[in-house]
Amino acid sequence: MLGSTHGTLTTDSRRARVLACGEPPGPAVHGRPADAGDLDVSGRPLYADVPDLDRFFRPESVAVVGASDAEGRPAAGITRQLVAWAERVGARLHPVHPTRATVFGLPCAPSVAHLPERVDLAVLLVSDPLPVIEELAEAKVRFAVVFASGFAETGEEGAAAQARLSAAVRRSGLRLLGPNTNLNAFEHFRDDLTGPAIALITQSGHQGRPVFALQELGVRLSHWAPTGNEADLETADFLSYFAEQPEVGVIAAYVEGLKDGRAFLLAADRAARRGVPVVAVKVGRTETGARTAASHTGKLTGADDVVDAAMRQYGVIRVDGLDELQDTAALLARARPPRADGVAVYSISGGTGAHVADLATAAGLHLPRLSAARQAELHRWIPAYLNVANPVDSGGHPVGDERGRKIIDAILDDPSIGVLICPVTGPFPPLSDRLVRDLVDAAEHTDKLVCVVWGSPVGTEPAYRDVLLGSSRVATFRTVANCLTAVRAHLDHHRFTRSYRSPFDEAPRTPSPSLRKVRDLFQPGRRLSEHAAKQLLRAYGIRVPREQLVTSAAAAVRAAGQVGYPVVMKASGARIAHKTELGLVKVGLTSASQVRDAYRELTDTARYEDVSLDGILVCQMVERGVEMVVGVAQDDLFGPTVTVGLGGVLVEVLRDTAVRVPPFGEEQARDMLAELRGRALLDGVRGRPPADTDALVEVVLRVQRMALELDGLLAELDINPLMVLDRGQGAVALDALAVCR
Q1: At 693, phi and psi to the nearest 5?
Q2: Cα separations in angstroms, 341 against 156, 419, 487, 650
Q3: At 686, is the pLDDT very low, low, confident or very high (cuts 50, 70, 90)?
Q4: Are 602 and 587 spatial neighbours (Cβ–Cβ below 8 Å)?
Q5: Where would you tag: which of 87, 357, 651, 672 has the fewest CB atoms within 10 A of its CB?
Q6: Which residues, at least 6 apart from 432, have a Cβ–Cβ distance to it below 8 Å?
Q7: Which of 20, 18, 44, 5 has its CA nearest to residue 669?
């Protein structure tokens, strides 16, 4: 029961109220580095600084420090490959070695200082790169690559060595790739391929091989950045750079850990602003994977649910396998923007069509029912007893003559269809040969996406090897699962970019008056009492029950009369985390005698449990609503995160929560609610009216403001339960826990 209610808030009024205690977001800024005016309320940049890596990928002159032509030596093989690469890209290569006059017939300088010209890039084939960095700085070399291992991936001693290397690089002014990297940046990229290219980022070179091999299927690759341990240049740097390159159509990444979560999000934001899709395998879904990845590169993998949510926020398409990375990146590089979101499944077998349609629907794809007129048209060539509503079953025979192409064209002509998927479970010449030729021809004459799943395990059939793989317009897959994953990513990406508004554009830039009100509450390592935590909430405009903190039974009786019966009484103290389990909560008190008895019992229990109190809270009792939890936690990679989920005891039993990394806007807050398995409780079940989701969203946004403004002060916040009342009546924080950093 409540003495007052909230009115219904419009979107504009909610945003105004959330931002009322601070300056509104500034205008969107696109395509430029951050400056002093582009910082959020905690002083962090809001836009990615894009490094100029042109001379790294296209150097005019290259030095190879530690070059060798001694057969059988690892450095000789690397030097040979670099010599061939330099000839291929038109770069002048200068070997550097203190005891050699020539290397592979090229004049050899005894040291960096003796180089005949200033070089753009130095490749270091030495076990200890640290002394060389200072030489490179004096020679004004712009970029360096360190192949040596034995750094952060090996433990504390190696991490210390890497820290010294990083410090030397910062002092030098050059940019460094590695250590613990390889030759992938200097591979042979085919220059006879056209169309949008894939740019590849990997922290393990071997894991990029499947994507690199796409060139053999006619898919263009433009860059490969093997980032290694990322002592300086990191995944985020290459992500930002690649997003700006006009030839790049998609960025594919294999990520074991992230050096800087915020930098990664800023880079992903830059790609999203430009509509460049990012597809990533991110290792660390399990404890074993996270531990192994960390030992490989010496970086943090992050809590997987937070990584997952952060990637979704910025449109990064996360896949699990290298085969999915390969297939999804290839599709996104080649496919044109969809004309419609509908997917049609066409097969020569009703069983195959039904199976694939079932899988496609389960994958979240929309299979619209074709119109009656379209079905009638298809039945001109397909027997009337076969289904053509979607999936379309031709029965087989029509594909052997001119009817096959007419069927494909009719499906593609339907305005509700943007993608056609045709599963071919195995070769059955001559029908399968005619079918794939018709699909390829149709794809050449439409701007819609045509996908074929070739199910044969052999893969040497001419229909597959020559016809399908020879087409740049048909997306060919070997498994239905990979096809559906790629199609879903394609449609999701374009849907996402059509409505994308950068969360960083909505981030608060100026501290609110609320921050000044609550600073005195925070002391390092302190846990706030419930009373103090509610003061924090109240300062940020989050509604709490009417309540008073009392230190005597008589005061408790007076407070109950002022708050209004029935009341709840709770022990309040900084060290009390779970009051209910300790018997430190009394509910439904309706008289003065019950209040006096409750006061005595609560103080006695506190003494027995050796719990220090700052008083007893006498609170208004709120009886009906949906119990939710809203909180703030600190993530090692991304900093403050905001969580919402089912509250009360359900939060520990069901763990039904959604998380986001601030900043984010109202749309993302509503998406968080949509992700909850128990979302129906907010819509009203078993005769209950719908809950006030607008008020819940407002609380989430206010908590986000707290997370941003109090970063560095607030370690943890737990509002549980937040009672969400019936629509139009608001939400009330019944209990709260806050921990200072």
Answers
A1: -65, -30
A2: 51, 7, 10, 37
A3: confident
A4: no
A5: 87
A6: 424, 426, 463
A7: 18
Six-digit token string for 532: 């103090």
pTM value > 0.70:
yes
So what's the pLDDT on residue 21?
37
270/190 Cα distance (integer angstroms): 27
Q: How many CB atoms lie within 10 A of CB 116?
A: 10
The SS3 call for residue 244 is coil
Q: How many residues are there in the chain?
A: 741
Neighbours of 462 (CB within 10 A): 13
The conformation of residue 381, written as its DSSP 8-state character, comes to T
Q: Which two tokens stand for residue 38?
A: 């582009």
Full strand arrangement of the beta sheet holding 567-572: 547-550, 615-620, 567-572, 585-589
Coil, strand or helix at 81: helix
Specify whether the CB–CB gap between 346 and 353 falls below 8 A.
Answer: yes
Dihedral angle computed from the Cα positions of residues 330, 334, 338 and 342, in that order, rounded to the nearest 10 degrees: -50
Q: Do 259 and 230 form a contact (C-beta atoms < 8 A)?
A: yes
Q: What is the DSSP string of 9-35?
A: PPHHHHHHHHHTTSPPP-----SS---
Residue 389: burial class (beta carbons within 10 Å; 0-12, 13-18, 19+)? middle
Q: d(Cα 390, Cα 371) in Å, to the nearest integer?
A: 10
Torsion angles phi and psi, residue 507, rounded to 5: -70, 140
Contact 343, 366 (CB under 8 A): yes
Q: Tokens 């085969």 belong to which residue?
A: 323
8 Å CB contact between 240 and 50 = yes
Which amino acid, one-letter code, is at 163?
A
533 φ, ψ (degrees, to nearest 5): -65, -35
Closest by CA position to 360, among listed 259, 458, 491: 491
Please tell me the distance from the alpha carbon of residue 651 to that of residue 645, in angstroms, as a whole number. Answer: 7
Q: How far apart are the C-alpha atoms of 309 and 316, rounded to whole Å?
A: 10
26 burial level (CB within 10 Å; 0-12, 13-18, 19+): middle
Confidence of residue 261 (pLDDT cuts 50, 70, 90): very high
Residue at 335: amino acid letter = A
Residues 619, 314: Cα–Cα separation, whole Å: 42
User: How far does the chain reach from its first CA to its final CA, in angstroms?
Assistant: 36
Burial of 652 (0-12, 13-18, 19+ CB in 10 A): exposed
Does pLDDT of 240 surpass 50?
A: yes
303-328 pLDDT, tens digit each: 889 999 999 999 999 999 999 999 99
Q: What is the pLDDT of residues 363-419, one digit of tens each?
A: 999 999 999 999 999 999 999 999 999 999 999 999 999 999 999 999 999 999 999
CB count within 10 Å of CB 426 equals 11
Taking the C-alpha atoms of residue 284 and residue 269, their distance in angstroms, rounded to an integer, is: 22
List CB contacts of 269: < 8 A, sequence separation 6 or more: 47, 48, 314, 502, 503, 504
Peptide bond into 391 cis (omega under 30): yes
CA 133 to chain centre: 35
Helix (H, G, I), strand (E, B) or coil at 33: coil
Structure tokens at 178: 């590695």
670: amino acid identity, one letter = R
Tokens in use for 690? 């719908």
Distance CA 44, CA 347 (A): 54
* 615 DSSP β-pair partners: 572
